[in-house]
Amino acid sequence: MQVPAEISFHNLESSAWAEEEIRARIADLERLYDRLVTCRVHVDQR
Question: Could you tell me the pTM of the whole model?
Answer without folding.
Answer: 0.86
